Amino acid sequence: MKTRAIQYVVLIGVAAVFLGPLYWLLSTAFKQPTQIYQWPPAWWPHPTWENFSLAWKAAPFDRFFLNSTIITVIGTALKVINAVLTAYAFAYLRFPFKKILFFAVLGAMMVPGHVTLLPNYLTVASLGWINTYAGLIIPGIGSAFATFLMRQHFLTLPTEVTDAAAVDGAGHLRTLWRVVLPMSRPMLITVVVITAVEEWNNFVWPLIVTNTASMRTLPVGLLILKDEEGLAAWGTIMAGTLLVLAPMLLIFLIAQRYIVGGITAGALKG
């Protein structure tokens, strides 16, 4: 009984560490300016929607939101399709240098993304894709991490099912669509959520490859909002931050029951 009580105390402490900043962001977004700077801090705000109105008007958030939505939806779809097809090939097909190529994929996971910024930028610039959706989306459609997760999960599926599909005359694409993916729904949803969050929160690449406000995304828009409002308008800045966080938090809450099972499924399979 004493051990369980200690466990609960530790869990509550860990939850407070993670949820405390999120609650402070949420409460500050609804606070009036006088409450933000008062001491001792006001933990419960007198709610006001003025900060959201100011944030929305201070920068073209409607355009930022549209750009982020387009990039996230299309980028996530292309990245997941690419990862699924590549993972299926590594899991079920036989071809020369298969192990070497898979080790190359694993090696790509260890390379920091910032290393590829310059070559990607030079390539996009040479193609005339600066300040375009193609320039924002295409360089990031390959995901070594998503490929690795899907491949590891495919290896845990019973081979009898795919063998039966082959006996029935199903080709690889039909087997993938009708047999493998329905059995991989938790992992697929996990990969989609992780990829969508990554696309939505991407900051450095959209900042580099765009040069007009009409092509900026929400994370870059927060930087514009901070420059516009200055260091004093923290209520407005937190309201803008909440506008950026809300869609991904909603998606995570909807899909969370799939995520744990998806992440752990096949993690130890070689």
Automatic annotation (TrEMBL):
GO terms for biological process: transmembrane transport. Its main location: membrane. Signal peptide: none annotated. The keyword Transport applies. Keywords: Cell membrane, Membrane, Transmembrane, Transmembrane helix, Transport. It is a multi-pass membrane protein. GO terms for cellular component: plasma membrane. Residues 65-255 form the ABC transmembrane type-1 domain. It holds the Pfam family BPD_transp_1. The chain crosses the membrane at residues 7-26, 70-93, 100-122, 128-149, 232-255. The keyword Membrane applies. CDD domains: TM_PBP2. Coiled coil: none annotated. It is found in: Cell membrane. Belongs to the binding-protein-dependent transport system permease family. This is Carbohydrate ABC transporter permease.
